[in-house]
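name: query_chain
kind: protein
chains: 1
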Amino acid sequence: MIWQPEVYDAADQVPHPGAEIHDTLLEQLAELIGVRHPGLAAAGRDRLVAEHLAGRDPSRYGTWVYYPWHRRLVHLLPRDEFREVRADRNRDKITPAEQRRLAGARIGVIGLSVGNMAAITLALEGVGGAFRLADHDRLSLSNLNRLRAGVADLGVEKTVLAARELAGIDPWLGVELHRDGLRAARIDEFLRGLDLVVEECDDLALKVLVRERARALRIPVLMETNDRGMLDVERFDLEPDRPILHGLIGSREAGAVSVAELLGGSRLSARMAASMPEIGVTLSGWPQLASGVALGAALVTDTARRILLGEHTESGRYHVDVAEIVADGRGALTGAPDG
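structure:
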Protein backbone atom coordinates (compact mmCIF):
# COMPACT_ATOMS: atom_id res chain seq x y z
CA MET A 1 0.00 0.00 0.00
CA ILE A 2 1.26 3.46 -0.89
CA TRP A 3 1.81 5.84 2.03
CA GLN A 4 4.72 8.13 1.12
CA PRO A 5 4.09 11.50 -0.55
CA GLU A 6 6.29 12.69 -3.42
CA VAL A 7 7.90 16.11 -2.83
CA TYR A 8 9.09 18.30 -5.71
CA ASP A 9 10.78 21.68 -5.91
CA ALA A 10 8.20 23.90 -7.62
CA ALA A 11 10.93 25.36 -9.83
CA ASP A 12 11.37 21.95 -11.48
CA GLN A 13 9.11 20.11 -13.89
CA VAL A 14 6.38 18.41 -11.84
CA PRO A 15 4.90 15.10 -13.16
CA HIS A 16 1.39 13.71 -12.61
CA PRO A 17 -0.46 15.81 -15.22
CA GLY A 18 -3.78 14.12 -14.44
CA ALA A 19 -3.71 14.89 -10.72
CA GLU A 20 -6.23 17.10 -8.96
CA ILE A 21 -4.52 20.44 -8.27
CA HIS A 22 -4.87 22.16 -4.91
CA ASP A 23 -3.06 25.51 -4.96
CA THR A 24 -3.44 28.06 -2.15
CA LEU A 25 0.14 29.32 -2.27
CA LEU A 26 -0.72 33.03 -2.40
CA GLU A 27 -2.90 32.66 0.70
CA GLN A 28 -0.06 30.81 2.43
CA LEU A 29 2.37 33.59 1.49
CA ALA A 30 -0.02 36.21 2.88
CA GLU A 31 -0.23 34.20 6.09
CA LEU A 32 3.57 33.97 6.25
CA ILE A 33 3.82 37.76 5.99
CA GLY A 34 1.09 38.09 8.63
CA VAL A 35 3.04 35.80 10.99
CA ARG A 36 6.16 37.89 10.55
CA HIS A 37 4.35 41.24 10.69
CA PRO A 38 1.31 40.91 12.99
CA GLY A 39 -1.24 43.69 12.61
CA LEU A 40 -0.11 44.69 9.14
CA ALA A 41 -2.93 45.95 6.90
CA ALA A 42 -3.93 43.96 3.82
CA ALA A 43 -2.29 46.42 1.41
CA GLY A 44 0.98 46.10 3.30
CA ARG A 45 0.77 42.29 3.22
CA ASP A 46 0.21 42.32 -0.55
CA ARG A 47 3.26 44.53 -1.03
CA LEU A 48 5.46 42.31 1.13
CA VAL A 49 4.21 39.17 -0.65
CA ALA A 50 5.27 40.70 -3.97
CA GLU A 51 8.65 41.61 -2.48
CA HIS A 52 9.01 38.07 -1.11
CA LEU A 53 8.36 36.56 -4.56
CA ALA A 54 10.87 39.01 -6.08
CA GLY A 55 9.38 38.65 -9.54
CA ARG A 56 9.14 34.85 -9.45
CA ASP A 57 6.10 33.09 -10.89
CA PRO A 58 4.08 31.93 -7.84
CA SER A 59 3.45 28.56 -9.51
CA ARG A 60 7.20 27.94 -9.49
CA TYR A 61 7.75 29.02 -5.87
CA GLY A 62 7.95 26.60 -2.97
CA THR A 63 7.02 22.94 -3.14
CA TRP A 64 4.55 20.66 -4.88
CA VAL A 65 3.55 17.54 -2.94
CA TYR A 66 1.85 14.64 -4.66
CA TYR A 67 -0.35 12.37 -2.52
CA PRO A 68 -0.74 9.24 -4.69
CA TRP A 69 -3.47 7.56 -2.59
CA HIS A 70 -5.94 10.27 -3.62
CA ARG A 71 -4.12 11.58 -6.72
CA ARG A 72 -3.87 15.13 -5.42
CA LEU A 73 -1.06 17.61 -6.11
CA VAL A 74 -0.76 20.25 -3.38
CA HIS A 75 1.22 23.50 -3.62
CA LEU A 76 2.99 24.46 -0.39
CA LEU A 77 5.53 26.94 0.90
CA PRO A 78 9.13 25.71 1.17
CA ARG A 79 9.64 23.42 4.16
CA ASP A 80 10.99 25.97 6.66
CA GLU A 81 8.38 28.60 5.79
CA PHE A 82 5.64 25.95 5.86
CA ARG A 83 6.68 24.88 9.35
CA GLU A 84 7.01 28.48 10.52
CA VAL A 85 3.40 29.19 9.59
CA ARG A 86 1.97 25.83 10.61
CA ALA A 87 3.40 26.08 14.13
CA ASP A 88 2.85 29.80 14.62
CA ARG A 89 -0.20 29.42 16.85
CA ASN A 90 1.82 27.22 19.21
CA ARG A 91 3.75 30.31 20.28
CA ASP A 92 4.53 30.99 23.05
CA LYS A 93 3.01 27.99 24.77
CA ILE A 94 5.89 26.37 22.92
CA THR A 95 8.68 28.82 22.16
CA PRO A 96 10.47 28.78 18.77
CA ALA A 97 13.58 27.33 20.46
CA GLU A 98 11.47 24.58 22.03
CA GLN A 99 9.78 23.91 18.70
CA ARG A 100 13.17 23.33 17.10
CA ARG A 101 14.20 21.03 19.93
CA LEU A 102 10.98 19.00 19.71
CA ALA A 103 11.28 18.74 15.93
CA GLY A 104 14.50 16.79 16.42
CA ALA A 105 12.85 14.12 18.60
CA ARG A 106 12.38 10.54 17.37
CA ILE A 107 9.26 8.82 18.69
CA GLY A 108 8.11 5.22 18.41
CA VAL A 109 4.43 4.26 18.58
CA ILE A 110 3.50 0.61 19.09
CA GLY A 111 -0.15 -0.25 18.50
CA LEU A 112 -2.13 2.02 16.19
CA SER A 113 -5.67 1.91 17.48
CA VAL A 114 -5.25 4.10 20.56
CA GLY A 115 -1.76 4.89 19.22
CA ASN A 116 -3.18 6.29 15.98
CA MET A 117 -4.64 9.36 17.67
CA ALA A 118 -1.54 9.72 19.83
CA ALA A 119 0.75 9.79 16.77
CA ILE A 120 -1.50 12.30 15.00
CA THR A 121 -1.75 14.60 18.04
CA LEU A 122 2.01 14.47 18.56
CA ALA A 123 2.55 15.48 14.94
CA LEU A 124 -0.08 18.22 15.09
CA GLU A 125 1.65 19.77 18.09
CA GLY A 126 5.10 19.44 16.56
CA VAL A 127 6.25 16.93 19.17
CA GLY A 128 8.59 14.76 17.13
CA GLY A 129 10.12 15.14 13.71
CA ALA A 130 10.54 11.42 13.02
CA PHE A 131 8.10 8.61 13.83
CA ARG A 132 8.52 4.85 13.89
CA LEU A 133 5.16 3.03 13.77
CA ALA A 134 4.41 -0.64 14.46
CA ASP A 135 1.19 -2.63 14.05
CA HIS A 136 0.27 -5.79 12.16
CA ASP A 137 -3.46 -5.12 11.88
CA ARG A 138 -5.77 -3.61 9.26
CA LEU A 139 -8.64 -1.20 9.82
CA SER A 140 -11.91 -3.00 10.49
CA LEU A 141 -15.45 -1.71 10.81
CA SER A 142 -15.45 -2.00 14.61
CA ASN A 143 -12.38 0.29 14.74
CA LEU A 144 -14.44 3.19 13.36
CA ASN A 145 -15.82 4.02 16.81
CA ARG A 146 -12.45 5.52 17.77
CA LEU A 147 -10.03 5.87 14.82
CA ARG A 148 -9.78 8.88 12.51
CA ALA A 149 -10.80 7.08 9.35
CA GLY A 150 -13.76 6.51 7.05
CA VAL A 151 -15.45 3.59 5.39
CA ALA A 152 -13.28 4.00 2.30
CA ASP A 153 -10.28 3.12 4.51
CA LEU A 154 -11.60 -0.29 5.61
CA GLY A 155 -8.93 -2.93 5.04
CA VAL A 156 -6.06 -0.42 4.99
CA GLU A 157 -3.12 -1.34 7.20
CA LYS A 158 -3.17 0.69 10.41
CA THR A 159 0.46 1.69 9.95
CA VAL A 160 -0.32 2.97 6.45
CA LEU A 161 -3.41 4.80 7.67
CA ALA A 162 -1.37 6.63 10.33
CA ALA A 163 1.49 7.36 7.94
CA ARG A 164 -0.89 8.95 5.43
CA GLU A 165 -2.34 11.15 8.17
CA LEU A 166 1.14 12.25 9.23
CA ALA A 167 2.07 13.03 5.62
CA GLY A 168 -1.02 15.21 5.33
CA ILE A 169 0.01 17.18 8.42
CA ASP A 170 3.63 17.65 7.34
CA PRO A 171 5.01 15.92 4.23
CA TRP A 172 8.59 16.36 5.50
CA LEU A 173 8.13 14.25 8.63
CA GLY A 174 10.35 11.20 8.82
CA VAL A 175 8.13 8.10 9.01
CA GLU A 176 9.23 4.47 9.22
CA LEU A 177 6.75 1.60 9.25
CA HIS A 178 6.92 -1.85 10.83
CA ARG A 179 3.92 -3.21 8.98
CA ASP A 180 4.09 -6.75 10.37
CA GLY A 181 3.95 -5.53 13.95
CA LEU A 182 6.74 -5.88 16.47
CA ARG A 183 8.37 -9.27 16.92
CA ALA A 184 10.79 -10.15 19.70
CA ALA A 185 13.76 -10.47 17.34
CA ARG A 186 13.21 -6.94 15.99
CA ILE A 187 12.43 -4.99 19.16
CA ASP A 188 15.95 -3.58 19.50
CA GLU A 189 15.92 -2.58 15.83
CA PHE A 190 12.66 -0.70 16.44
CA LEU A 191 13.76 0.97 19.67
CA ARG A 192 17.33 1.93 18.86
CA GLY A 193 17.80 5.66 18.39
CA LEU A 194 14.39 6.64 19.74
CA ASP A 195 13.94 9.40 22.31
CA LEU A 196 10.56 8.17 23.58
CA VAL A 197 8.17 5.24 23.11
CA VAL A 198 4.37 5.28 23.21
CA GLU A 199 3.28 1.70 23.87
CA GLU A 200 -0.39 0.91 23.12
CA CYS A 201 -0.38 -2.75 22.06
CA ASP A 202 -2.75 -5.46 23.35
CA ASP A 203 -0.16 -8.20 23.90
CA LEU A 204 0.92 -8.40 27.57
CA ALA A 205 4.07 -10.37 26.77
CA LEU A 206 5.08 -7.74 24.21
CA LYS A 207 4.38 -4.95 26.71
CA VAL A 208 6.83 -6.57 29.10
CA LEU A 209 9.49 -7.26 26.47
CA VAL A 210 9.32 -3.72 25.06
CA ARG A 211 9.88 -2.30 28.52
CA GLU A 212 12.74 -4.65 29.29
CA ARG A 213 14.55 -3.53 26.14
CA ALA A 214 13.59 0.15 26.57
CA ARG A 215 15.06 -0.02 30.06
CA ALA A 216 18.27 -1.53 28.70
CA LEU A 217 18.45 1.19 26.06
CA ARG A 218 17.37 3.91 28.55
CA ILE A 219 14.30 5.10 26.65
CA PRO A 220 11.23 6.50 28.48
CA VAL A 221 7.90 4.75 27.88
CA LEU A 222 4.36 6.19 27.99
CA MET A 223 1.15 4.14 28.01
CA GLU A 224 -2.44 5.45 28.14
CA THR A 225 -5.05 2.82 28.88
CA ASN A 226 -8.31 4.55 27.92
CA ASP A 227 -10.07 4.22 31.27
CA ARG A 228 -10.35 7.08 33.77
CA GLY A 229 -7.63 8.94 31.85
CA MET A 230 -4.93 6.63 33.21
CA LEU A 231 -1.41 7.39 32.02
CA ASP A 232 1.71 5.40 32.91
CA VAL A 233 5.09 7.12 32.76
CA GLU A 234 8.24 5.01 33.06
CA ARG A 235 11.44 7.05 32.96
CA PHE A 236 13.90 4.30 32.13
CA ASP A 237 16.22 6.98 30.79
CA LEU A 238 16.58 8.40 34.31
CA GLU A 239 15.94 5.20 36.29
CA PRO A 240 17.70 2.32 34.50
CA ASP A 241 17.01 -0.03 37.42
CA ARG A 242 13.31 0.80 37.70
CA PRO A 243 10.99 -2.27 37.84
CA ILE A 244 8.93 -2.48 34.67
CA LEU A 245 5.24 -1.59 34.92
CA HIS A 246 5.94 -0.05 38.34
CA GLY A 247 6.76 -3.49 39.75
CA LEU A 248 3.12 -4.61 39.45
CA ILE A 249 4.00 -7.96 37.86
CA GLY A 250 7.01 -8.71 40.06
CA SER A 251 9.01 -11.64 38.73
CA ARG A 252 6.01 -13.40 37.18
CA GLU A 253 5.69 -14.21 33.50
CA ALA A 254 3.33 -11.93 31.57
CA GLY A 255 0.93 -14.84 31.02
CA ALA A 256 0.39 -15.11 34.77
CA VAL A 257 -0.83 -11.49 35.07
CA SER A 258 -4.38 -10.40 34.33
CA VAL A 259 -5.15 -7.15 32.54
CA ALA A 260 -7.32 -6.03 35.47
CA GLU A 261 -4.42 -6.63 37.85
CA LEU A 262 -2.03 -4.73 35.63
CA LEU A 263 -4.40 -1.76 35.48
CA GLY A 264 -5.05 -1.78 39.21
CA GLY A 265 -8.47 -3.46 39.39
CA SER A 266 -9.75 -1.39 42.30
CA ARG A 267 -9.08 1.81 40.36
CA LEU A 268 -10.89 0.85 37.16
CA SER A 269 -14.09 2.70 36.37
CA ALA A 270 -17.21 0.82 37.47
CA ARG A 271 -18.25 0.19 33.87
CA MET A 272 -14.82 -1.07 32.82
CA ALA A 273 -14.58 -3.32 35.87
CA ALA A 274 -17.97 -4.81 35.01
CA SER A 275 -16.88 -5.29 31.40
CA MET A 276 -13.67 -7.20 32.12
CA PRO A 277 -15.23 -10.66 32.80
CA GLU A 278 -17.50 -10.21 29.78
CA ILE A 279 -14.68 -9.89 27.24
CA GLY A 280 -14.82 -12.97 25.04
CA VAL A 281 -18.24 -13.89 26.46
CA THR A 282 -20.74 -11.13 25.66
CA LEU A 283 -18.14 -8.60 24.45
CA SER A 284 -15.93 -9.22 21.42
CA GLY A 285 -13.07 -7.03 22.65
CA TRP A 286 -11.77 -4.36 24.97
CA PRO A 287 -14.35 -1.52 25.33
CA GLN A 288 -13.01 1.83 24.11
CA LEU A 289 -14.61 5.19 23.37
CA ALA A 290 -13.54 7.95 20.98
CA SER A 291 -13.62 10.51 23.81
CA GLY A 292 -11.27 8.37 25.89
CA VAL A 293 -8.91 7.86 22.94
CA ALA A 294 -8.86 11.62 22.26
CA LEU A 295 -8.19 12.37 25.93
CA GLY A 296 -5.44 9.74 25.97
CA ALA A 297 -3.78 11.27 22.93
CA ALA A 298 -3.83 14.67 24.62
CA LEU A 299 -2.31 13.23 27.81
CA VAL A 300 0.40 11.40 25.87
CA THR A 301 1.28 14.47 23.80
CA ASP A 302 1.36 16.93 26.68
CA THR A 303 3.48 14.58 28.80
CA ALA A 304 5.79 13.64 25.91
CA ARG A 305 6.40 17.32 25.18
CA ARG A 306 7.35 18.05 28.80
CA ILE A 307 9.55 14.96 29.04
CA LEU A 308 11.44 15.87 25.88
CA LEU A 309 11.91 19.44 27.14
CA GLY A 310 13.17 18.23 30.54
CA GLU A 311 10.13 19.57 32.43
CA HIS A 312 8.71 16.28 33.72
CA THR A 313 11.16 13.85 35.27
CA GLU A 314 9.14 11.48 37.47
CA SER A 315 7.76 8.05 36.72
CA GLY A 316 4.32 7.14 37.96
CA ARG A 317 0.70 6.38 37.25
CA TYR A 318 -1.60 9.35 36.77
CA HIS A 319 -5.37 9.70 36.37
CA VAL A 320 -7.20 12.51 34.61
CA ASP A 321 -10.71 11.24 35.26
CA VAL A 322 -13.16 13.51 33.44
CA ALA A 323 -16.12 11.90 35.23
CA GLU A 324 -14.62 12.98 38.55
CA ILE A 325 -13.48 16.43 37.44
CA VAL A 326 -16.62 17.40 35.49
CA ALA A 327 -19.28 16.13 37.87
CA ASP A 328 -22.34 17.36 39.72
CA GLY A 329 -21.31 19.56 42.60
CA ARG A 330 -17.82 20.24 41.17
CA GLY A 331 -18.60 23.21 38.93
CA ALA A 332 -18.88 26.08 41.42
CA LEU A 333 -16.95 29.21 40.41
CA THR A 334 -14.60 30.42 43.14
CA GLY A 335 -15.36 34.04 43.98
CA ALA A 336 -18.40 34.21 41.66
CA PRO A 337 -20.66 37.18 42.44
CA ASP A 338 -23.91 36.45 44.31
CA GLY A 339 -27.16 36.58 42.40
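note: The first strand starts at residue 6 and ends at 9.
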